[in-house]
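TEACHING EXERCISE
Course module: macromolecular assemblies
Task: Read the component lines below, then compare them to the predicted structure of the full complex.
Student: A.B.
Group: 4
Components provided:
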Amino acid sequence: MTNSTILVLIALMAMFAFAFMRQKSVAVVGGATEALHSLPRYHGYFAALLVLLPGLLVLVLWLATGKMIVENLIVSGLPDELAAVYADRIDLLINRIRLVAENGTGVESDESILAAAARFNQLYARGIIATLVFSFAVGAIGFVHASSKVEPDFRARNSFERILNGVLATSSFLAIAITLGIVASLIFESIRFFQQVPIEDFLFGLKWSPQTALRADQVAAEGSFGAVPLFAGTFLISLLAMLVAGPVGLFAAIYLTQYASQRTRNIAKPVLEILAGVPTVVYGFFAALTVAPLFRSTGAWLGLDVASESALAAGLVMGIMIIPFVSSLSDDAITAVPESLKRGSLALGATTAETITKVLLPAALPGIASAFLLAISRAVGETMIVVMAAGMRPNLTANPLEAVTTVTVQIVALLTGDQEFDSAKTLSAFALGLALFVLTLVLNVFALSMVRKYREAYD
Amino acid sequence: MNQHILSTYDDELKEVRSVVVRMGSLAAEQLADSMRALRELDTELAELTRVADKKLDALEVIAENTVVGVFARRAPVADDLREVVSALKMTTMIERIGDYAKNIARRTLEIADGKGVILMPQLLEQMSAEAHEMIQDVMDAYVKRSADDAVAVWERDDHLDNLYDSTYRQILARMMENPDQIAVWSHYLMIAKNLERIGDQATNVAEQVFYTINGEFLEDARQRRNAGD
Amino acid sequence: MTDYQPFEHEQDDTGVDWNSPEMQARLHRRNIGDRFFRFVGFFAVTASAFFLVFLLGNIAQKGASGFLQTSIEIDVAFDADILPDPTNLEKDAFAAAVAQVNMQYLIRQALTNRFPEVTGRRDTTRLTRLLSSGARAQLRDIVIKNPELIGTTHRVSLLASDEIDQVVKGNTDVSVDEANRKLTDMELGWLQSLESEGRVTKDLHTRFLTSGDSREPELVGVWGAVAGSGLTLLVTLLTAFPIGVFAAIYLEEFAPKNRFTDIVEININNLAAVPSIVFGLLGLAVFLGLMGMARSAPLVGGLTLALLTLPTIIISARSAIAAVPPSIRDAARGLGASPMQVAFHHVVPLAMPGIMTGTIIGMARALGESAPLLMIGMVAFIVDVPASINDPATVLPVQIFIWADSPERAFIEKTSAAIMVLLFFLITMNGLAIWLRQKFERNW
Amino acid sequence: MLDMAEEKDLQSTVKPKVTLRDVHVHYGDVHAVNGIDLDLYSDKVTALIGPSGCGKSTLLRCLNRMNDTIPDCRVDGEILLDGKNIYDAKIDVVQLRARVGMVFQKPNPFPKSIYDNVAYGPRIHGIAADRTSLDEIVESSLEKAGLWQEVKDRLDDSGIALSGGQQQRLCIARAIAVSPEVILMDEPCSALDPIATAKVEALIDELSGRYAIVIVTHSMQQAARVSQKTVFFHLGEMIEQGDTTQIFTAPREERTRDYITGRFG
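Instructor-supplied answer key:
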């Protein structure tokens, strides 16, 4: 018995409800379906939804909270001595129990944990049964309700559509739920982090060295969580990326919208689209294996000491990645300027370049500015290129030839090694994530409001 | 001729044209009636003819209103413009013809009233026939849209003028011969003048018909043709 | 008439003398400025194209050889004393018995027969390292398949080790000093000798497309990652597509225009610009932390990517729905259809090509995404090909990431080859989207 | 008083500002304008009329080479401005467009201040030597365009803030500011209400002595009101040209008459 079995059973029940109620509605009017307010199939749909939705709701609730409930039960039922040992590290204990429960007994030797794991599996299996029973029960209630409603005058279609409308609305509110989920999970974990590390140390500290004790009894050097070097590294690489992508993207957009022939556009646009479609991991590989060594050897030839994971290589490749982003957004902004303005300027004897700099770009400025802001936001949040091509060592420098590390690199580094949920090291990743989220959100909101402000000024 | 995209415009132009034609035939009829009354000194007919002029006046008002409406709403150009402008002028001219006919009828009554009745001179008969024919011909030219016919009418005006000169001289001689009949003869003289004026108006109508059709003034056209010859 | 003067209109009161040298010089300067602008723009476009060609060319050049694999033919004596007798064994029992046999011994024997001058434990070990550690399994499979070979000596072709492979493909520079390379001159000598006999072959490496990950570059395959990507995308599609389309229908067709829907709309636009790694953190906190789902599973990966692609799908579906002209809605409504019927019977079917195109593009983006998947543990080393959405798995881009991090030289070509596979899928998907767009493109 | 023959002589001594000789325009395979011969005079407003797609706007755009921006547009024949072919390779199109100004169908002021709109042309062409003379040009252009009294106190306001008619007069002022010799107007009043139209027409009247003005219009009444010369196009061919009064009272060609009187063509 697994969760997916429950899903299948609920679906089968809904199908049955559909078939049954459709038949019943026909039977009620003795086959004279024109006597029904709604077509038989709407009676069927209505019943199916009444069965399906409550059942699914129960299942989703179980999936979302089941393990937590079981864990709480386990914790409360733990032998005292075990509870005492793990008094303030309950999460660690739960991790161990889960590991056993998921992967089998081979990974653990502690008897009491093995017992707890067995109990976990037992309780979880019971939970599944309970969920099945419960979801069937609510489904049955829905079924009975729908059945009692089957009458010629019952507006099955209207009721069905009302429910469907609710489903549609819920789907769109899910987008809000995602945002709230992001904010909540980041803030929740970050608060726990800031309980261990003062927020001012995080925001203004100049040293990033996230080493904490792995075990409770281990006496380790205090980790330091000053994120400034990470922000600086992120800023440096984003700046380098924008130095490449900004001018190249903008001028490509200008050329394609103002100078290029249709044929050139037909070739260039797909090229930019492909450039935009290449996965970032490919750019990362390219940066690490081709561009970085190239820069290093070129630097050596010039007598410069270029780090093998220089910010320059990561920044340049990230810039290439962002070119299509800047160019397509700028392209949109420029083509959104009415053609009549362009013709007005040309008819006064302005050259195309004068028309661009004096008429088109000022008019498209909000669009272009927001394109740049969105591009910066993109660069700040980009992960794979820097993970693969930028360094790991926090380095507070403005020299693009040195290796720097970024916020995203550190998040990945902190969360891909051995991890435990409660340590400051792991939690700091969420704090970094929160900083990243806030930064990009501010950039995005600012970009959008900028467009609006200028649009008002021009309207 | 192509129709207008707006058929109501065509209807209005047709209306203008038909009023002009009706006025023309009415005027011709009035002239004929007044001359018959004069010939037979039929005071009853003369009285009727005098009153009939009111019909002509009423038609002129209709024509005027229609034309003003076309101007206001259609902003006519080219041949449409010429059509309505000419129609407006032609109705005035034809109305004048009606006035002259009325005048003839009035004088008929006075002649009939007077002592010493003298029969109408033969020349007047010829003049009236000529004038009547000119009116009819010019209206035919208008209906047929024939510039040549209009020119033909225009050219006949000389003949009528010559007739008038003859008539004038004849009546003048009679007056001198019979000074006591001067009152009657002066009426005849004025009628001759009226007939001559009717001919002039018919000529003017002919010029308008020519302009309506060709878009140029008959005088200019003739001058150019003479220069070309 | 004689005093008449022709009009002289060439000079106005504020007239400009266009032919003055200053004006001509100015015009010249302005035109040069224009040409400069055009050149810079052209340069920008060319540079972008150059980057793309360089990137793809570089990958292709490195990756092409990844699809080939070097094998070495050796004469193996299938010693009947060591190998079990197939005549009195069931097929399965025979296979189990063969699996017990130390194939490495047979290989060593074969190699030392070929190179009798090699003695000593260290050199013999070196000799066997000409072949891949996977050669043993290869040999075992050969025996199980062809029991009649037992007792004979037969020439078989076995996988060469990655170092040998790289030398044969010319990817390793053998001219450097012996101390600075992995292979010794002695080993190269053996290789040369084998090559001179025509025993070294390069073949199409089907294993690369059909097997899962491995520690040995010559044994790796992308199939595990491809299957993982497929399962993950399936989950993503099944969750993000219906929810996204429903949300789009609601927002375009039913949502009342009020502050709340404004917020939903702004929120969706902002979500589309949130860094992907943040979605990974969300997935980590919610799916793994809160809901306790299995790490590294396509289920969690797919759900995380669904969060990521949802805004994209909503935005593209909305624009496809908005592109359906209002006249269609009016027509259906005029026939007495309810708003739901208008939406589901008329608007959505007409918008479907656009929705599909947007979805495919969103899926392609999800296929190339790796950062959020690192957060939820899909970065583990997984040999088995996943069979269900709950099995531990990795996906193609993460596989690329893992391989790119591996120190062995041979992984460079494998990584590049895997990138080529990934790009193949991406191009196919985008091509499908373009095809859909063109086939169903409609000008209302 | 002049007699007819003398008047004709006089006409021929006036040099045309722009001369078109056998002008053909192709858009790809479409023959949009077919063999036009036409003279445009400095002291006259010439109206180009004809049904949509007759090539009149296309022809207008040839006169300042705005057609250059349209791909596969080919212009053959000669268009002479003061005797020089404007399609000659040696002609600088930038200079040409300064000499041949253009006003568009929809008012298209730049999203800049009123002052900057008018100053745009003089600035790019370097016509004004200093700020004072630029101020003078702006003022006199706005004055000529009849807009000075309305905007002199708010020269820094956006040109877009003006009403439609004011915007169009601003565009005319913008065109005048570079002292063009010819002004092309492409249906300049089609987006305006009757009052604004009347003001623009009054402005055209005002300007008519100083510039060769060519106006494309769909309103026959407008052509009749503002032009001294009217040219009728149909299907890319020039059917008739002549004095506006003559065209509108006694057109020589039946197609002209049918078109201007609104008959089935």
